Amino acid sequence: MASFLAAPILLSSLLFTASIANAMPADWSQVLRAPCHRTPFVRTSSSALALAVPFSPHVTGASYLAISATVTYLGLAAALDAPGGSMAVDKSCFEVRQSQVKGGGLGLFTTVDMKEGTKLGTYPGVVRSAASYMKKFRRYPNTCTYAWRFKDSLGYIDPTDSFGRIQNFCQGGSSDTVGSVFLHENLLGRGVPTLLARINEPPSARGNRGCNVITREDLKERTVPFFLSRDVVAGEELFLDYGATYDRSGY
User: Fold this and answer.
1) Does the pLDDT value for residue 113 go beyond 80?
2) Full-model pTM
3) Contacts of 55 (CB under 8 A, 6+ apart)
4) Nearest Cα to 179, choosing from 156, 164, 154, 162?
């Protein structure tokens, strides 16, 4: 979640809860004498839905305000900083091992035959604004090894952890949002596989002719689906053209 969104979201949740707190009765003894005193409710008159909010006489309005604001903030952080991407083919159909590319590290190989046009999945990671990504990149330069930059340069998909390292699963989270990284990496545990981030470019001698994977960016949805550009056989390494703007100075 971008840092510029955090403050407005928290403020909105505070104001919303304040409006509910203002509707609480000044004298709780009136509530306790009511027939429904075991589960007292206060209804706000400002909502057409007649929002009913349960209160306890042992909790102050300020406490409700803090609790509601915190829950709202963390809920939005959980949603907006969640990792995207998915596998369209069962993970057992792939194997991560040493790439054929010299200095390429690990690569992604198939364990079964697959047909041209097969959708492999969508690129994994947290969609970040350009500003948020560059902030992380300056601190952890290795982030760029696996980050996917959209063609319009307005955002990136970042599959790395909070230190810019690739793991087997992307857990999500953003250092721009207080508590977000801890929430995603330690509590939510709903990571997405990073298999597609392991796909290398083909050896330089093969050029684009060695590619067997193509992508189709969806700028509206901010996703990058991966497809096979030809039939592949079991044991074949998957290769992808990273595009004209990719930095190959380290090759």
Assistant:
1) yes
2) 0.70
3) 24, 31, 40, 41, 42, 64
4) 162
